[in-house]
Design a protein that fits this description.
single chain, 436 residues, alpha/beta, UDP-n-acetylglucosamine1-carboxyvinyl-transferase, Chain, 4-stranded mixed β-sheet, 23 strands, 28% helix, binds ligand EPZ
Length: 436
């Protein structure tokens, strides 16, 4: 079992490069499964969720050729099944994008209900309701048997879909299903995350006709063929970049984060400026530093769909708020149970009380090293940040969960001065936690 051991208290300094966006490339790989020709995808991050998605795409017949340095040639033309029921499908939630992709390719799609994450239920009712509006059957809860979804459509027709909840997954999945549908599909109240725009840009580069991605109304004019035949480079990962900005902050370091899109970081940048950090930025970099004698100001964060503060930076920002002088609040408005990591932080000295979707954070505290668990990907990243700021040594178990979404995190942190290492521990030493 992979764990991390961190000796905290080191001030991070220097330069770190951000990798391609996990949440963009997972949608793009599913979109590639719909193409009528090959394509090349660049800047693909070397992370476990991508490895899983690539394997899943191969199980349905896609030919995937790694070209090295994050470049993959994808040929979906030999995909031979509409059934994504390989056990690996359960490993990652984003496999559900194959519903939209296979429905487009075969007018049929069969796959396992996606697993939840341990921060609350993760329904896909909006995905299924949208498919139904486009003409698919098998999309009602009563149609789902043995945990398997079986949807089929004689024809996929354009539809006017209003999402009653802003959903990244539903927006992407319905965009996929609409790409070759008959006529125009309009998705209202669509999510606007950078990774949605990236999936739309990929599809347009391959022959689709999608307008308005990044706004709350996306219009998809169905096309008969998606020729493919081009290369596409994935955008930088907004959440990885934010995690390193906060890593610099919690160690009162001086770090320049390269290969990012500053516009995507604004929801975090403005809050860090409020707290007293110095933020400089250029076309594709942000530098985080702070004067030695600056006391961190408390502030309140509220997670919201983009361009609001991203829920996937919520645990990391909570660690930062523990170092502010006074009371801060973290409002989690996207997920109904995303503070489960708080007891792990409390074991390191945090002073946090949680009432449903609001955490009251009292600071400053001095974190002290402890043995903690990475409960999920972003909670695990928060444990790393607390370990970097802590006095003493922190051991983080289930670190494999962190490696689902952070490429070479140990190497990258060591490159800016952290004392962190992988350690392998016998399973019996690691208290089992319900896996995702
Ligand atoms: C995506 O999950 C991300 N995952 C999550 O990031 C992220 O937390 C989330 O978007 C919000 O930004 C990927 O992109 C692979 P949603 P997704 O559909 O699509 C409700 C990470 O750490 N909802 O936007 O599953 C849902 O319950 C991961 O990288 C419905 O009610 O999230 C939630 O309250 C963790 N019905 C809200 O919408 C539906 O059919 C937002 O969920 C779908 C969603």
């Amino acid at each position: 079992m992979t764990s991390y051991r961190i000796v905290g208290g080191k001030r991070l300094q220097g330069d770190v490069n951000i990798s391609g966006s996990k949440n963009a490339v997972l949608g793009i790989l599913a979109a590639a499964m719909m193409l009528d020709g090959p394509c090349k995808i660049e800047n693909v991050p070397d992370i476990n969720d991508v490895h899983a998605m690539l394997e899943i795409c191969e199980t349905i017949g896609a030919q995937i050729t790694p070209c090295g340095d994050g470049v993959y040639e994808i040929d979906p033309t030999n995909i031979n099944t509409y059934e994504a029921t390989h056990p690996k499908v359960k490993n990652i939630r984003a496999s559900y994008y194959l519903l939209g992709a296979l429905l487009t390719r075969f007018k049929k799609a069969t796959m396992f209900m996606p697993g939840g994450c341990n921060f609350g239920t993760r329904p896909i009712d909006l995905h299924l309701k949208g498919f139904r509006k486009m003409g698919a059957q098998g999309t009602r809860a009563t149609d789902i048997r043995d945990g398997i979804i079986r949807i089929v459509a004689n024809e996929l027709n354009g539809a006017h879909i209003f999402l009653d909840v802003v959903s990244v997954g539903a927006t992407i999945n319905l965009m996929l299903a609409a790409t070759k549908a008959n006529g125009l599909t309009v998705i209202e109240n669509a999510a606007k995350e950078p990774h949605i725009v990236d999936v739309a840009n990929f599809l347009n580069a391959m022959g689709a006709n999608i307008k308005g991605a990044g706004t709350d109304t996306i219009r998809i004019q169905g096309v008969p063929v998606l020729p493919g035949g081009y290369s596409y480079s994935v955008i930088p990962d907004q959440i990885e970049a934010g995690t390193y900005m906060i890593a610099a902050a919690v160690t009162r370091g001086d770090v320049t984060i390269h290969n990012l899109i500053p516009k995507h970081m604004e929801p975090l940048t403005v809050k860090m400026l409020e707290m007293g950090f110095d933020i400089e930025q250029g076309d594709d970099w942000i530098r985080v530093s702070i004067d030695e004698d600056t006391e961190l100001e408390p502030t309140n964060f509220k997670t919201r769909p983009y361009p609001g503060f991203p829920t996937d930076l919520q645990p990391q920002a909570t660690v930062l708020l523990c170092l502010a002088h006074g009371m801060s609040q973290m409002h989690e408005n996207v997920w109904d149970n995303r503070f489960q990591y708080v007891p792990e932080l409390q074991s390191m000295g945090a002073s946090i009380s949680v009432m449903e979707r609001i955490a009251l954070i009292h600071g400053p505290v001095q974190f002290s090293g402890a043995r903690v668990t990475a409960l999920d990907l972003r909670a695990g990243a928060a444990m790393v940040l607390a370990g970097l700021a802590a006095e003493g040594t922190t051991t983080i178990t289930f670190a494999n969960r962190i490696e689902r979404g952070y490429e070479k995190i140990v190497e990258k942190l060591r490159g800016i001065g952290a004392e962190i290492e992988h350690i392998e521990e016998d399973e019996e030493h690691v208290v089992p936690v319900d896996d995702e």
